[in-house]
Amino acid sequence: MSAQDLDRRDSLAALLGGRRGAIDATLPPVAFGVGWLISGHSIGIGVVSALVVGAIVAAWRWRRGTRPRAVLIGLLGVCVAGLIAIYTGRAEDFFLLQILSNGASVLAWLISIVVRWPFLGLIAGAALGQRTRWRRDPALLRAYSRASVVWIFQYVLRLAVFLPLWWAGQVTWLTAARVVMTWPLIAACLAISWWVLRKSLPPGHPGIRHPQVD
User: Fold this and answer.
1) What is d(CA 156, CA 150) in angstroms, rounded to the nearest whole number?
2) Which of 58, 115, 185, 212 has the fewest C-beta atoms under 10 angstroms from its C-beta?
3) Residue 34: is it exposed, middle or buried by C-beta count within 10 angstroms (0-12/13-18/19+)?
4) Domain of 55?
């Protein structure tokens, strides 16, 4: 089966998922923005709102079988974001952790491509149970590297939107941007990177599930 004829179940969207996690990650920041707004710009109430929603999301994930470590990391992120906002006294700093995370992601994904260990290959390889077999397929290694560039642009785009809003102290617009630039942006990134990945594989290649290893 050629790369062009790969089944939909092999797509990055189907393989990596991400919709539930992306939506869940959006809820606490939205709760913060709403709580801050309706309380007359009270950072404390905004943080409490985010923590309550974050705890509900964490409990829901746990019941749905999400790994405890992933649940705790998500809740810890909400706590850290809240502490930063309380410490600085600036509501917009609740989103500072997200901005720093995107900046670090740009650097990490770029380095992964340079050293020929593209993160997209690592993630997809782990999901497929291949570990690092895909690296011994030159065509697949090249395809994962090119597709990983799309993810770098995703993080850069977020920074281009979030940084000016954070600098201007636009909490309401930061909340709205957090919604728009989470699942919709991830969905677009998955679709485009999947297209790049497929186009980068030579004709006759069996696809990402079957690395051609000597």
Assistant:
1) 10
2) 115
3) middle
4) 3-200
